[in-house]
Automatic annotation (TrEMBL):
PROSITE patterns: ATP_GRASP. It comes from Actinomadura rugatobispora. This is D-alanine--D-alanine ligase. SUPFAM superfamilies: Glutathione synthetase ATP-binding domain-like (SSF56059), PreATP-grasp domain (SSF52440). Pathway: Cell wall biogenesis; peptidoglycan biosynthesis. Signal peptide: none annotated. It holds the Pfam family Dala_Dala_lig_N. One of its GO terms (molecular function) is D-alanine-D-alanine ligase activity. InterPro entries: ATP-grasp, ATP_grasp_subdomain_1, D_ala_D_ala, Dala_Dala_lig_C, Dala_Dala_lig_N, PreATP-grasp_dom_sf. NCBIfam families: PRK01372.1.
Length: 313
């Protein structure tokens, strides 16, 4: 059966709303370019009535941040019995929580930086100074601090000296109630996207990220021209194979579906270290997933169409 009515969900109320809207517009345009009828909708108070009164053949969520990636919207789509592209709710919840995802992939045999997760309450109740001293003794320096949930590098920062850690924690808690503090591994930052074709996950070419000042923050991610992207990443064949293996392993171990993007650091020895996974990759003009699709000589609209078609049938 041909797709006759597709909804792309974008927007929402997270910190990443504007990025999601840009992603949604790009995906909708890409689908129209391959003759798929598309309706672009926000995740607002009108959504349920719209989906109930005119159920689409399938939905492609490009919602970023909470609700979009924590499984909540997908729970609603399942309640309405509407097919959708992407991981199911339970898998989203595990992937969305970075410490949980790290535990799962570590059990699957992947390397991931040593870390500690601290809720804001514990951090304050036990005495911030004492807790931070113990973190530095245990994990060493440098460190990377980021919210346990969230994306787009919001609230994330590198800590190279112990004196920088308190400010990094405060910045992190501005975007979430818990912080993940992990060892910072020097190396090549890459992202490996995965799409499923005929039910089998396949890795796309790795995208190497060369950010200004070595810091791939929110501005570097979404302001065109600020960051250099190299596709395929400048890795040895052995390192590239390890990165591909890591992304596909993470996709499978976390029970993901249809598409994902795994962020990795490849160290000087060519070892790939898992950082986090994204179940709703960005689709903007500077996002990594579309770059990987293009590098694989694929068309973004055709890829999205095929994923939607697989859910519809």
């Amino acid at each position: 059966m041909e797709l006759g009515h597709v909804v792309v969900l974008a927007g929402g109320l997270s910190y990443e709303r504007e990025v999601s809207l840009r992603s949604g517009r790009r995906v909708a345009d890409a689908l129209r370019a391959v003759d798929v009828p598309v309706e672009l909708r926000d995740a607002d108070a009108t959504l349920l009535d719209a989906l109930t009164n005119d159920p689409p053949d399938a939905v492609l969520p490009v919602l970023h941040g909470a609700a979009g990636e924590d499984g909540a919207i997908r729970d609603v789509l399942e309640l309405l019995d509407i097919p959708y592209v992407g991981a199911r709710p339970d898998a989203c919840r595990v992937a969305w929580d970075k410490p949980s995802a790290k535990s799962v992939v570590r059990r699957a045999g992947l390397s991931t930086p040593a870390s500690v997760a601290l809720p804001k309450e514990v951090f304050h109740d036990l005495g911030a100074s004492s807790v931070l001293d113990h973190i530095v003794r245990r994990l060493g320096l440098p460190l990377f601090v980021k919210p346990t949930r969230g994306g787009s590098a919001l609230g994330g920062s590198v800590v190279r000296e112990a004196g920088e850690l308190p400010a990094a924690m405060v910045g992190c808690f501005a975007y979430g109630d818990a912080a993940l503090v992990e060892q910072y591994i020097e190396g090549t930052e890459i992202a490996v996207s995965v799409i499923e074709r005929s039910g089998e996950p396949q890795a796309l070419p790795a995208v190497e990220i060369v950010a200004p000042g070595g810091r791939y923050d929110y501005t570097a991610r979404y302001d065109a021209g600020d960051t250099e992207f190299v596709v395929p990443a400048r890795l040895t064949p052995e390192a590239a194979e390890r990165a591909t293996h890591a992304a596909v392993t993470a996709h499978r171990a976390l029970g993901l579906r249809d598409l994902s993007r795994t962020d990795l650091i490849v160290d000087a020895n060519g070892e790939a270290h898992f950082l986090e996974v994204n179940v709703a990759p960005g689709m903007t003009e500077t996002s990594l997933f579309p770059l990987a699709v293009s590098a694989a000589d694929l068309d973004l609209g055709a890829v999205c169409r095929d994923l939607l078609q697989a859910r519809f049938t």
